[in-house]
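Standup notes
- DV: blocked on the single-chain target, sequence here:
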Amino acid sequence: MKRPWLLVLALILALSPAAAAPADEANAVVDAWVARYSANDRDGVVALYAPDAILLGTTSPVISEGTDQIRTYFDELPGSGRSNRITDRRTRVLSPDAVLSTGFYAFARAAEGNVPRPSRFSMLLVRRDGRWLILHHHSSPHSAVRR
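- DV (later): unblocked, structure below
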C-alpha cells in the first residue's frame, strides 16, 4: 500500500456526518411546520416564517403579510385539535439559499372526526443568517377531480 494516508482520509470522510443539502435543511422546516401545526403550537408555527413573509392561507380571503398578520391567521390554532400531514411533496433547490417545496397535504380536525381535507401547498424557503425560514407560503383546497 503506497499511500495509507489516502485510505485514512477516505475513511474519515466516509464516517463524518456530511452537511445537509439545502433541500434537506429546507424540508426539515416544512416538517417542523407540520409538527407544530399538528401540536396546535401557533407561536411555534409563526416562528418558522421570515418577518417579511407572505401567507396565502387555505381559508383566508386576504393576503397575510409579516409576522403580526401571520400570527392573526393562526389565532384559532391553539387548542383546536387541528392536524396536518404531507401526502406528496416535490422539492427544487433554486440556489444554496433558496428552496421551493410544493405538494399536497391534508388537514384534519378532531371535532370533525379527523376527516382529511386535501389541500395543496407551496413554500419558498430562504436561508437568512444561517437559518431557514418560510418566505412565501401558498395553501389552497385540492380537488381530487381531474379535468
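- Follow-up: Residues 8-19 have pLDDT under 50 and may be disordered.
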